[in-house]
Request: fold
Amino acid sequence: MKRIIILLIAKLMISSFLIADTTYPIVDTGQIIFYDDFDEIVTPDPGEPFYGQDAQFIGNQPDYTDNGDGTITDNVTGLMWSKTCDTDGDGDIDYDDKMSYEEALASVSNVNIGGYTDWRIPSIKEQYSLILFSGIDPSGYQGSTNDLVPFIDTNYFDFAYGDKSAGERIIDAQFATTTMYVSTTMNGDETMFGVNFADGRIKGYPIAPMPGQTEDKQFYVYYVRGNSDYGTNDFEDNGNSTITDNATGLIWSINDSSEGLNWEEALDWIQLKNAENYLGYNDWRLPNVKELQSIIDYTRSPDTSNSAALDPIFDITSITNVGGETDYPYFWSGTTHANMENGSYGSYVSFGRGLGWMEQPPFSGNYTLMDVHGAGCQRSDPKSGNPANWPYGHGPQGDVIRIYNYVRLVRNFDQTSSQNDLPETGSIQLHQNTPNPFNPTTTISFSIPNESKVDLSIYNIKGQKIKQLISDQLSAGQHSVVWNGKDDNGKSVSSGIYFYKLKTANFEKTKKMILMK
Reply:
């Protein structure tokens, strides 16, 4: 229990140390609860089943500032947002605040919030930066919304579920973006990708009237401004079967798992890859769903580019889908998509068609397989089981259930490269402390190519220096020092996140570590 509490605290702590100098930093999902195939579990250790899921890793923690003028600044992404989707200004959020896609695009010319007039409708990647997987999917729920938990931080953003008084479902809280599907969905419908902060998904939504309706599909709107580079990737082939995205600070494997795995098998497979030092690294992980969505290429699709919705710098396994067409897989994330009952679904991203079995009139078991949500959608599948148990999918669009989904590895480019990491000639190397997490001692190692004046110090989560380990002229070569978890006054420090910084005359690098008592 104590271990869970410490990790929970660690996930909630915010630090500028964690945000790399990047144009497209991925905001953490906010998921701090651990799950197996169905329910919450205690924190798994390395080598145990379900180790390596989303809650295991600390990313760029959500960090907002309410500017008091109707605007919210995201201190991680550099984007500024409108605080509310009450677009008609009547003090409540309901169906009357929604707009069609065309109305949303046109509305920005008249928006003045906080004295700013350069607002825009966000792209799908900008909008998705706000999603948090501390939310609970209420699909099928018919009760009061008072106790529901949406997939956005309502401490900062005004939010409402679907307007039941207007005939909507609770989950009808889809938000407009400028990202149109390059292909079509359903029966050839022009389609926009939108984020649903009620049920925690990205789907392609036809912008024309829904069946039985006369007005175009309606969406809530949050406006955004600033950091126009957000959502733009900067891929670099490292020549060793890995790809660096310089925009996000992530390194990806070029190849995927080449076979489908259930969620537990996916997590186990990555542990095996780390044990064999795959591609020279042992710190691979299953990407969280926001990291995975960051590499979607929304300019591509099977029907328009004869490819996955993925930059061709990557390799991707092609599959034959349930309709017999050449297609591309769903990919697992480490993020659980919790619902009102349990955590039996895991979030995935589709790099091929977002298929569904749509029941056709007269709705008597006449199903047609079609691309209902688009290549680039984010949905969820059961973590285990037999896909044959869902012959016509799940949900109102009959989302095809695969369960055996593919895996692509990811790691941070500022982590240590391997257990046997050796310095390159002429370079300074600061290695990850071992063990980490630790109690009560840990060893910090580094190497310097030339004799240098070296400072190695420990900082707390507030950025305050609490312990100077080294301040001396050191010879070239490998060095290591043990920290005993005490500050400069000899007092034992409390559990939590700490940072160690190595400085020379022309080098500075910081790494994080966790003390667990």
